[in-house]
Amino acid sequence: MGRFWVGLAAILVLTACAADRAPSPSPAIGQPVQPGATQASLAAARAQLITHPKFADTDPHPWEGRTPWSYPIHGIDVSRWQGDINWRRVKAAGISFAYLKATEGGDLADPKFRDHWRRARRAGVKRGAYHYFYFCRPAAEQARWFIRHVPRDSQALPHVLDMEWTPHSRTCTKRPSGSKIRAEADRFLDILEAHYGRRPVLYTTVDFYRDTGIGRLRGTEFWLRSVADHPHVTYPGALWRFWQYTGTGRVPGIEGNVDLNVFGGGPERWLRWSGQI
To answer: Is 59 a residue of the active site?
Structure first.
């Protein structure tokens, strides 16, 4: 073999080796994922889900149109008022996620938070934490209070800012303007996003949403309470990630009533949004 052919052969061998080492290109956005590790992880994660559960309710609503249980992914939100929880029973009943109250205002911490946080994860329930906002303290102060009590955890869901009117509070019944509230919400969300790496979801109620224009916040996902109609009726035109459909649900493993919620998407979207695949 002459020098030319020897050199050409060497070049071809090196090229082939380099090709073997090169990573496969990622599929373009919007293109179907090719079979392989991603599809295998999706199938494994889906196999762990219990979809379309239906729970008892001590004050059921006669739903018309699309019902809450037509959504596949259900979850709860809890605080100290639910007491001790058997998280393994909760998981086995079909609860896919739980939001746990961590803090309130700038000086209250839920005494059951750490226990719920630890035991929910141990049982395999995806969980995040929420903060109940008071309008008598600056947003930055409340954000620092939340950060003080909720550890960074790459497995946690995006955390939640709970904003609603507080007319029955013994310490704070202020009703700031919509512009002031939106600015404070933005400040709180920005601080938590910088600390935890994902922008929190914002939970609110019908009257608060209507009175404050909170739905104008850009780049924010919403968790909407609507216990008598589907959110598309109660919040016309609003986009939502979670829907809280009752406060009187009953779930095995929890004594008494509990809030029930659905995720606004199918199993694969849930698994991707929650970081499980």
So the answer is: no
Q: Residue written as tokens 């909760």?
A: 90
> How do the pLDDT tens digits run along the chain, 277 residues long?
444 343 434 433 333 333 333 333 333 333 344 444 588 889 999 999 999 999 999 999 999 999 999 999 999 999 999 999 999 999 999 999 999 999 999 999 999 999 999 999 999 999 999 999 999 999 999 999 999 999 999 999 999 999 999 999 999 999 999 999 999 999 999 999 999 999 999 999 999 999 999 999 999 999 999 999 999 999 999 999 999 999 999 999 999 999 999 999 999 999 999 999 9
Of 122, 111, 96, give the one whose Cα is nearest residue 260.
96
Write down the catalytic residue from 57, 59, 64, 77. 77
Is residue 242 within 8 A of residue 263, CB to CB? The reply is: yes
260 vs 225: CA distance, rounded Å: 10
Strands (E), the chain: 56-57, 74-78, 95-104, 108-109, 126-132, 160-162, 201-204, 222-225, 242-250, 258-263
Q: Is 164 a catalytic residue?
A: yes
57, 164, 211, 221: the catalytic one is: 164
CA distances from 88 to 93, 115, 122, 254, 257 (A): 9, 14, 9, 11, 18
Distance between CA 172 and CA 175 in Å, rounded?
9
From residue 185, give the alpha-carbon distance in Å to each of 85, 107, 134, 180. Answer: 31, 18, 11, 9
Q: Which domains does the chain have, with CATH numbers?
A: 62-273 (3.20.20.80)
Alpha-carbon 67 to chain mean position: 21
